[in-house]
Design brief:
By secondary structure, the protein is an alpha/beta fold. The chain contains 8 helices and 9 strands. It has 2 domains: 154 residues, 3-Layer(aba) Sandwich (Alpha/beta knot); 63 residues, tRNA(m1g37)methyltransferase, domain 2 (Trp Operon Repressor, Chain A, Orthogonal Bundle). The mean pLDDT is 94. The structure holds adenine (ADE).
């Protein structure tokens, strides 16, 4: 997957994109990352990219002429058809999620635009942006950290990054539930023992246990997710049991 990022701070990407799985993704050719400094597209001798807002108000805005020229130049670097989505990282965008990551992973190329200061001239949206994404209901100082989150989560959904075949299918959220607990050696640590069932080697039992743990954890932490999850009758019965246990505890 080719990803082009337009940013005022390309150096922010250096460490996160060169360690661990992102490094591996680049090494194996799964990620073809291109960082573009928006300042390189300024026609100004001081490389200015921002200006004060019409009508007053604080802060500075990224100029439409600079940013649209930068985006159009970057899009033209590839010959992908249809043209790639051009995604503005902004707290006003649609909320990023596992499903959005899977959707983005279907594209051979993405262009991510990191805004800064108080935002950007509205005409950038009208002329050059096809999608807007927020990574949460809070405001970051710029879109760079958000872009890195989107790149990481999206690449996990491109087959081949994770070691075990289809490991991404077992992630929390992949089936609408959080993952349950995991354990490794030692079998007993400070009196806490690895659940017996995991030590039996009985795969059917282990799978059933894991599914119940995932259900229980989702019930305890993110009950809202259960409304969308696909559950069997037996699993719905388990949820009813959790509810009864909760009610019992409250008595
Ligand atoms: N830029 C600033 N805040 C952001 C957010 N929450 N998500 C995406 N981009 C942003």
């Amino acid at each position: 997957m080719r990803i082009d990022v337009l940013t005022l701070f390309p150096n922010m990407f250096q460490s996160p994109m060169n360690e661990s799985m992102m490094w591996k993704a680049k090494e194996t050719g799964l990620l073809d990352l291109h960082l573009h400094d928006i300042r390189d597209y300024s026609h100004d001798k001081h490389r200015a990219v921002d200006d004060t807002p019409y009508g007053g108000g604080g802060g500075m805005l990224l100029r439409a002429d600079v940013l649209v020229y930068a985006i159009e130049s970057v899009v033209a670097l590839g010959d992908h058809q249809p043209p790639p989505p051009v995604i503005l990282m902004t707290p006003q965008g649609r909320l990023f999620s596992h499903d959005v990551a899977r959707e983005l992973a279907q594209h051979p190329r993405l262009v991510l635009v990191c805004s800064h200061y108080e935002g950007e001239d509205e005409r950038v949206r009208q002329l050059a942006i096809t999608d807007e994404i927020s990574i949460g209901d809070y405001v970051l100082t710029g879109g760079e950290l958000a872009a890195m989150v989107v790149i990481d989560a999206t690449l996990r959904q491109v087959g081949g990054l994770l070691g075990a075949e289809g490991a991404e299918l077992r992630d929390s959220h992949a089936d609408g539930l959080l993952e349950g607990a995991h354990y490794t050696r030692p079998p007993v640590f400070r009196g806490l023992e690895v659940p017996q069932v995991l030590q039996t080697g009985n795969h059917a039992q282990i799978e059933a246990w894991r599914r119940e743990q995932a259900l229980r954890r989702t019930w305890e932490r993110r009950r809202d997710l259960l409304r969308k999850a696909k559950l069997t009758e037996a699993e719905k019965y388990l949820l009813a049991k959790f509810a009864r246990e909760d009610a019992q505890r409250l008595k």
